[in-house]
Design goal:
The protein has about 300 residues and is of the alpha/beta class. It is built from 7 helices and 12 strands. The protein folds into 2 domains: about 55 residues, no CATH class; about 220 residues, Protocatechuate 3,4-Dioxygenase, subunit A, CATH 2.60.130. Helices cover about 25% and strands about 20% of the residues. Strand 7 and strand 8 form a beta hairpin. The two termini are about 45 Å apart. Bound molecules: benzoic acid and fe (iii) ion (FE).
């Protein structure tokens, strides 16, 4: 019966249609899509979209407001600011895609390090830095010595693995967000030594709000949500023959771990920063005398590349 009604609709009949018949007419026309995956995705999208509009009985004014919101989201997006990704992040869609793609399970022995959102502030081609070097080009916050190993999922060290790291400064901005910051500040690319070890000097991360001065921020406010992310440092770990992972290390003391604005916290990625008082032992190179500092040890496990 749907088929017959849909055929009438397709042939330009003036018959009034029910919502169910309209959905059928649209999905039936999509069956002409040559690419089978596009056909599957579009058919499902129409079913869910029509189902949603029908379920909430979307009014004309609400439909117009939604169009205005999406238009503003596009208009806010530039090379430096991707408001649509922010929308995807805050609606949990980015993490849903990540969860579905993730073939590993929680950081337990034998499994690879879990991934999480890349975020909009990754900039390729960070400065290449030596083992143990500092990424702090402009003083900011508390110095932190980051150390650890990169291994395969059996715990064998991977020599020459790449760690591409970036973190926000004490003023909550990444270098790319701040025209007054040196472009390489708090960013760097490191390689593991023969024993799989890496080391660098950074800072202890701070909580920060995602950009909330655009349509997505407006939506967060109207739905009673805060824009804060729990303190974290970003790392992309890669090595030839292994699957790369874009991940975070989260600070166990952040108060936003359970309410991350982008739903990106995984418990296997949460670590405790250890505080060291001045004079309590040798401080890493680059930590000014008399200053307390922190240390953080975290190992990354990579799974073999498919094929
Ligand atoms: C970030 O961690 O850099 C980030 C992730 C998602 C949205 C905004 C920022
Ligand atoms: Fe971040």
């Amino acid at each position: 019966m749907f088929g017959a009604s849909a055929a009438l609709a397709q042939s330009g009949s003036m018959e009034p249609m029910t919502p169910v018949e309209l959905t059928a007419a649209v999905t039936e026309r999509l069956q002409l899509t040559p690419d089978p995956r596009l056909r599957e995705v579009m058919t499902s999208l129409i079913r869910h979209l029509h189902g949603f509009v029908t379920e909430v009985r979307l009014t004309r004014d609400e439909w117009l407001a939604a169009i205005g919101f999406l238009t503003a989201t596009g208009q806010m997006s530039t090379d430096q600011r991707q408001e649509f990704i922010l929308l995807s992040d805050t609606l949990g869609v980015s993490m849903l895609v990540d969860l579905l793609a993730e073939s590993t399970s929680s950081g337990a022995a034998g499994f690879a390090t879990e991934s999480t959102v890349l975020g909009p502030f990754y900039v390729p081609n960070s400065p290449q830095r030596e083992y143990g070097a500092s990424i702090v080009e402009q003083p900011s916050g508390e110095f932190t010595a980051y150390t650890g190993l990169v291994t395969d999922t059996d715990g064998n060290p991977i020599a020459g693995a790449t760690l591409d790291v970036w973190q926000n400064a004490d003023d909550m901005h990444y270098a790319v967000q701040d025209p007054d910051s040196p472009p390489g500040n708090l960013r760097g690319v490191f390689r593991t030594r023969a024993d799989g070890s890496f080391a660098f000097l950074g800072v202890r991360p701070t909580d920060y709000p995602i950009p909330d001065d655009g349509p997505v921020g407006g939506l967060l406010a109207r739905t009673g949500r805060h824009p804060w992310r729990p303190a974290h440092i970003h790392v992309i770990v890669s090595a030839p023959g292994y699957q790369s992972v874009a991940t975070h290390i989260f600070d166990a003391e952040s108060k936003y771990l359970t309410s991350d604005a982008v739903f990106a916290v995984k418990s296997s990625l949460v670590r405790t920063f250890e505080r060291h008082e001045p004079g309590s032992g040798p401080a890493p190179d680059g930590v000014p005398a008399g200053r307390p500092w922190y240390s953080l040890t975290h190992d990354f496990r990579l799974s073999q590349a498919a094929g």
